[in-house]
Each structure stands twice: as structure tokens, then as C-alpha cells.
Amino acid sequence: MSSAAAALPPQTEPLSQIERVVDTFVAPSKAFTDLRRSANWLVPFLLVIVTSEALVFVADKRVGFDKIAENSLVLQPKAAARLDQLSPDQRARQMQKVVSITSISSYLSPAIVLVFLLIVAAVLLASFNFGTGAQLSFNQCMAVVMYASLPAVIKALLAILALAIGSGESFTFQNPLASNLSPLIDPGSHFLYSIAINADLFTIWTLVLTGIGFACLTKLKRGTCMGIVFGWWAAWVLGISGFSAIFS
């Protein structure tokens, strides 16, 4: 009896959502394995909402949407060229529309992010369940994606700090923090510049956490999970980079 008891795996204490958030950074395997017990993802979602809205608010106060909209045009020379062909009054009216759209979409960014993550979770659910024979629920996939997105909270806080101590003259929401390869690429090289923005330290961190999360919830090797996650990311980056090159 004693030998049989010794052979049983040790029981682990269930984690609260706050503990799971902390472990996502310090012990990700422990955090994601706990999703087998409960796939609640409310706390990380609230953290993403609060920090995203805080970044928008600080950017509005420190830089202003007028300047942010002008900075964004640097990344869209075709749109900038069309605006420059207008009379000063027409350009001013058009820029007011651009500023208004930028402001509204920025404050609605948490809803946009949620829709995007729902789509990501659905794609990964189909990839793992139909592609590898895993038996994951949508809520488990959504929980993995949401907890893996927590590095975005760190990025938002660092961007807020950078705005607080700097001028923010070149700030854009597309590239709020110099944590990628974009400073090495001319913004006029749309395809390469878009790839450089997406080759971001925090994005890579998120992708690695996502791969770890799915490895913890399935019997698949970690390398296989990483391959699926990074494969979809590469397809996404190439797609939006090509779109940017054509229409920007």
C-alpha cells in the first residue's frame, strides 16, 4: 500500500487567478497546467483592458491625438500624399476626421483586441483539435491566449513610463515602444518595416508562452506546439506586411 501511494503523482494546490497571473511570468508551466482545472481568464483580460486604456489616456494627455495622427501618416506615405494634394482647408477637415477615428479606435482598442484574440483562439482550437487530435475546449484555448498576452501589460506600462519621462514626439500606437527591429528599417520600406515592427520582444514572449500553454494542456511535444503557434504568426505577419506594402 505504501509503495502504491508513493507512485501516485503529488497533488498540487489549485491556483487563484492572481497566482496564475504571477506564475505566467515566473513559472508558466505551472500556470498553464492549472488551466486544466479552471479556464477562467477574467483577471488577465481586465489587466489588458486597464493598461491599454491607461496607455491611450496618457498618450492623449502627453502627445495628443493630433500629433499621433500626424505621426501615423509617416507610415502611410500614399495617404499622406493624397492629403498633401488637398487645399489647406480641405486637408485640415480631413485630418480632423483622421484624428477623430484615431481617438475613437484607440479608446475602443480593448474591444478590438478581444475580438482579435477570440479569432486567434478559434484558429488555434481548430489547428490543435483537427490537426493533432487534441481535445481542447474553446474556453481553454481562449484562456491560454489571454494569459499568454500578459506581456502586453508589461509593454503598455513601459510605454507609459517612456511617455512620462520623454517627449513622445514620434509616438504611434502601431509602435509605442522601441522593443523591436523597426529603428533599423526605413519606414518607407513598408514590407520590411511591418515585419520589423512585428519582430517584437513582447510578441515573441507571447508566442513562446502560447506554445508552452498548449503543450501543458495537450500530450504534444513543446516543439510541435511552438511550430504551430509560430507558423500561424509567420503567416499573419507576411500577410499584413504584404497588405501594408500594397496599400500604405
How many structural domains? 1
Structural class: mainly alpha
Number of helices: 13
Largest sheet entry: none
* Mean pLDDT across every amino acid position: 88
Report the β-strand fraction as a percent range.
Answer: under 5%
Low-confidence stretches: 1-9
Terminal CA distance? 70 Å
Helix content percent band: over 70%
Radius of gyration: 21 Å
Q: What is the global morphology?
A: globular
Number of strands: 0
What would your notes on this structure say?
This protein has 248 residues and is an all-alpha fold. The termini are far apart. It is 73% helix and 0% strand. It has helices at 2-7, 17-26, 28-33, 42-62, 65-73, 77-84, 88-107, 109-131, 138-148, 151-165, 190-198, 201-217, 222-247. The chain is built from 13 helices and no strands.
Question: What is this entry, summarized?
Answer:
With 248 residues, the protein is mainly alpha-helical. Helix content is 73%, strand content 0%.
Q: What are the SSEs and their pairings?
A:
Layout: H1 2-7, H2 17-26, H3 28-33, H4 42-62, H5 65-73, H6 77-84, H7 88-107, H8 109-131, H9 138-148, H10 151-165, H11 190-198, H12 201-217, H13 222-247
